[in-house]
Write a structure and sequence with these properties.
Chloramphenicol Acetyltransferase, about 170 residues, BAHD family acyltransferase, clade V, alpha+beta, Plant_Fungal_Acyltransferase, CAT-like_dom_sf, five-stranded mixed β-sheet
């Protein structure tokens, strides 16, 4: 399966709330825990796929900008301080958003191998998104998050809020 990156950009929050949030000292012990990646798959829409995908990307980014106003920590950067404690630097840069396409149809058995997120470092994004269009017109939204900033419940709360804003 081939996945081609069409765009990598940062989606900043609509309203920036600069500052820093210190994480629990226990977060440091879980630093080596892999980022969680979740996949949301959607069948081919009934309209022209090219125009639909472009419009969807615009809507996803606009909704993301609004949602980050309430979830501003998600758009910050994880930083390990000199005293080895971790914090989130809310610098207003926003979330990494990757737009990609695949030469494989959604029905392919290898569809879970589409995530092309870069490996996170110690000063990295706590959250990133990838929207991948399949050759059949289907769509996958891949969501990668750091477990030290979000647990499963808070991650789903963010995704649900983002989806509501996009609608």
């Amino acid at each position: 399966m081939k996945v081609e990156v069409e765009e990598i950009c940062l989606v900043p929050p609509e309203i920036n709330k600069p500052g820093k949030a210190l994480l629990s000292p226990l977060a440091h012990f879980a630093w080596e825990v892999q980022y969680r990646t979740r996949f949301l798959f959607f069948e081919r829409p009934s309209v022209k796929e090219g125009a639909c995908f472009d419009a969807l990307i615009v809507r996803l980014k606009a909704g993301l900008r609004k949602a980050l106003g309430a979830f501003y920590l998600v758009g910050g950067r994880l930083v390990v301080r000199e005293d080895d404690l971790m914090e989130v630097d809310c610098n207003g840069d926003g979330i990494m958003f990757i737009r990609a396409s695949s030469d494989t149809p959604l029905s392919s058995s290898s569809r879970y191998q589409i995530s092309i997120f870069p490996s996170p470092g110690k000063n990295s994004f706590p959250f990133a998104l990838q929207a991948t269009r399949f050759s059949c017109g289907g769509l996958c939204i891949s969501i990668k998050f750091n477990h030290q900033v979000m647990d499963g419940t808070s991650a789903w709360h963010f995704w649900k809020s983002w989806a509501e804003v996009c609608r």
